[in-house]
Amino acid sequence: MATAGQNSIDPTTVKRFLGEAMRVYEKLDAQKIANMNECRQIRAPLKDIKKAAKNAGLPKAAFNSLIKSELAKRTYDRAVENATPEDDEDVEAWEQMRAIANEGDLFDAAVKANAPTGDDETDLRPRHLRDQEAERLRENGERVMMGIKKLDEKAAVIGLPGADATEA
Fold it and tell me: What is the pTM of this model?
C-alpha cells in the first residue's frame, strides 16, 4: 500500500489481495463445473422424453416449440407475480398491458389499440407515429408563418409596394 509521501504501490500488498481474489475465482469456477455436471444429470431424461414423444406420434419440432412456449409462459407468470409498479402511471400502464395480454392474441390486441382513427383510414401506422407527424407538420407550419410574417415586416420597413406589416 502506498504510504504518505510515496507514489508507488507495495508489491506484497498487491500479491496478497490478488491471491485472495484468485482463490475466490477458483472456488467459483469449481462450483460452476459442479453445477454444470448436476444440470447435465437433471437434463439427461429430456432426451428420452423427447424420443418417446416422437415415437408416440408427436412431431419433434412442434413438441420442442410447445416446451419453449410453456417455459416462456412460466417466465411471464413469475414476472407478473414479482412485479411491483412504483407509481400511478406505471400501475395504469401495467394494467393496460395485462388486459391486452389476457385477451389472448397479442397481435390482434396491438392492431386494435393502434387502429386508425379519424378521416384517414388508409394510414396503417401506429397512432403514436401519426401523432408525431401531425405535431411535426403543425410546428413546421408555425415556422413557415413566422418566416412569412418576418419577410412582410422587412418588406414594409424598406417600403416595398403592396407590403403591409399589419396583415398576417
Answer: 0.41
